[in-house]
Specification:
Helix content: 25-40%
Strand content: 25-35%
Oligomer: single chain
CATH class: Alpha Beta
Number of strands: 7
CATH architecture: 3-Layer(aba) Sandwich
Length: 140
């Protein structure tokens, strides 16, 4: 079964089916990459993990040099955008995992976390929280 992903087009985004090979070509080939995922169960949804497993391929996103992985991606920056109904308890499992992959297997060393927390809290202004977080996202 193919993945269902959102593809950026000149006139916005559209939903698309993609083979594993086309997914692999999507990450790391621009100057910067963006990953957006909600904070679920101390991490991110399983479909993102599955995507990352499909794109992390020897000879495509990394190679081995002196028995260590060396990233082959052109991207120099990766922005990880996440939202959470409450507080993000630990960045280690969600953003930390993506950052470790980017640093060690993709060759992207400038990884930045952009987060909007406490969106579902009783006293929170979710619109204001989102507006503040969006100011930190660079324009595509």
């Amino acid at each position: 079964m193919p993945f269902r992903i959102w593809v950026r087009r000149k006139n916005g985004f559209s939903q698309s089916h993609a083979s594993c090979m086309s997914l692999r070509k999507g990450l790391g080939w621009s100057k910067r990459d963006h990953i957006a995922a909600p904070y679920w169960d101390l991490s991110f949804p399983a479909i993102l993990k599955q995507y990352l497993e499909h794109v992390c391929v020897v000879g495509l996103t990394f190679c081995y040099e002196n028995d260590l992985p060396k990233g082959l991606c052109r991207a120099k920056k990766l922005y990880y955008v996440t939202t959470a109904g409450g507080r993000i308890v630990s960045e280690e499992y969600g953003f930390g995992y993506v950052k470790a992959l980017a640093n060690n297997f993709f060759g992207i060393h400038d990884c930045r976390l952009i987060k909007a927390e406490n969106l579902d809290m009783f006293d929170s202004d979710a619109d204001l929280i989102m507006k503040k977080a969006c100011l930190n996202i660079p324009k595509l």
